[in-house]
Amino acid sequence: MSTERLYYTDAYLTAFDARVVRCTPRSSSGAGEVFAVELDRTAFYPTSGGQPFDVGTLTGAFVLDVVDEDDGRITHVTDTPLAEGAVVHGVVDWRRRFEHMQQHTGQHVLSAAFDRLLSNRTESFHLGAESSSIDLARDVTASEVGAAVDEANRIIWEDHPVQVRFVTADEAARLPLRKEPARGGTLRLIDIDGFDLSACGGTHVARTGGIGIITVPGWEKFRGGSRVQFLCGVRVRRRYDVWRDAFAATQKFLSVAPEELAPAIERLQSESKSLQRTLRALQEKLAVHEATALVARGTRSGDRLAVVEAVPDLDASALKAMAAAAAATPGAAVVLFSASSPALAVVACHPGAGVDANATLKALTAKFGGKGGGKPDLAQGGGLTGSSNELISAARLLLA
After folding, report:
1. What is the pLDDT of residue 31?
2. What class is the 98-241 domain?
3. Residue 379 forms beta bridges with which residues?
4. Which of 18, 34, 117, 177 has CB atoms 3.0–4.6 Å from 28's, for a disulfide?
5. Model confidence at 176: pLDDT above 80
6. In what order do the strands lie in the sheet with 162-167?
7. What is the pLDDT of residue 82?
8. Same topology between domain 4-92 and domain 98-241
9. From the CB of residue 325, how many other CB atoms can be counted at a distance below 10 Å?
10. Amino acid 295: pLDDT
């Protein structure tokens, strides 16, 4: 038996009474047992058509999920069993419901705006927890997005009525629906007076003014078209609060006016990159200078000079410069590690040392993890997970 869907005719209904038809234990991926409850009627919206489910209570039991079954029944997943045949009182979480109503009705208006102004139809949409999106058939420009958003907000602020009506498939075929229905039989239509007519089973506000406002934070190319992110009503307010606080903190830190934030950040990025280049050059010069001290601490065995150390406070470029400078000494085989963990490693060898730098690095990464490579005279890698003492001991054995 199909469940009577009270939300079909009254999206503002949040409290109702119903009889429990069936209650069975249901497997759960989380902690604790949950139950599948079927009612003869419900105001709880199930996940369907891109819109998330409602939550709330059924006589003290928390409704954790609502599922639209293939046979027309609706299953309520609860944390507490309910007696079959009992009459229960359901209460829908209104804040969540109304937020979804704003987003879903806003989607209809925004999709219609893109369709009417730009002949760019919506292929699919998704209502997310923080933001929602529509997938358009073709790519859009900034000016097109702006025009569609302006048109959508015009319809919102004119406060058009949003009506629900039911028609047969034959009647629907004679109506100017924005999109061809995905199924036959009796269809539920959402009619935004004078602007949009679409088959839809979701919950919607009674007038477009209830949407509040629509904004588009961004869009991207997607499968040959565009994915447009949008926010409606209460979500616009929440996003504004986040941006306001972020901009205020950034403005205070940089001591600039709001309109000067972007140029100020660009200048900081440019200065930071310049300082990084200068620091890298100075580190490399210092590394070459310090290579003399490294060589002096090396261990000579016959014609080979083994230089193995962990060097703090150097990046990969400076470590490479230091190793290459030390390897200029005849017979030198140099293995340097960063003091950080996981460690960087550079192996550099003088031609007379009789050591293959790449093979030495491969032996180290085989033992300590990480990856890297190079040539017989110079190889480098990273991600080695041993301690400095373990790395140094292993490298000395390889060079012995």
Report:
1. 57
2. alpha beta
3. 347, 374
4. 34
5. yes
6. 162-167, 187-192, 196-199
7. 96
8. no
9. 21
10. 87
Beta-bridged to residue 23, according to DSSP, are 37
Cα dist. 275→270, 281, 283, 315, 395 in Å? 9, 10, 12, 15, 34
- Phi then psi for residue 178, to 5 deg, are -65, -35
Strand partners, 207: 161
The residues spanned by each domain of the chain are 4-92, 98-241, 286-399
Query: Rounded to 5 degrees, what are φ and ψ at 369?
Result: 80, -175
Average pLDDT over residues 333-346: 93
**Among the listed residues 5, 194, 239, 234, the one whose alpha carbon sits nearest the alpha carbon of residue 106:** 234
Structure tokens at 278: 């200068």
CA distance 7 to 156: 22
- Quick check: 357 and 376 in contact, CB under 8 A? yes
Q: pTM to 2 decimals? A: 0.70
Structure-block tokens of residue 400: 């012995």
- Report how far residue 133's alpha carbon sits from residue 219's, in angstroms, rounded to the nearest whole number: 9
Beta bridge partners of 349: 333
Alpha-carbon gap, residue 22 to 83, rounded angstroms: 8
CA dist., res. 348 & res. 336, Å (int): 9
The domain made up of 4-92 has a fold known as Elongation Factor Tu (Ef-tu); domain 3 (2.40.30)
Sheet arrangement for strand 343-349: 299-301, 304-311, 332-338, 343-349, 378-384, 371-374
Asked if CATH classification 3.10.310.40 holds for the domain at 286-399, the reply, yes or no, is yes
- The pLDDT value recorded for residue 137 is 96
Render pLDDT for 235-268 as a digit per residue (tens, 0 to 9): 999 999 988 888 777 777 777 777 777 777 788 8
Query: CA 363 to CA 367: how far, in whole Å?
Result: 6
Query: Quick check: 85 and 20 in contact, CB under 8 A?
Result: yes
Structure tokens at 265: 């950040």
- Looking at the predicted structure, is the pLDDT value of residue 117 above 80? yes
Note if the bond before 342 is cis, omega within 30 degrees. yes
Adjacency order of strands within the sheet including 225-232: 122-127, 132-136, 225-232, 214-222
For tokens 């229905």, the residue is: 181
pLDDT higher than 80, residue 84 = yes
Report which listed range, 95-109, 235-249, 297-311, is most confident.
95-109
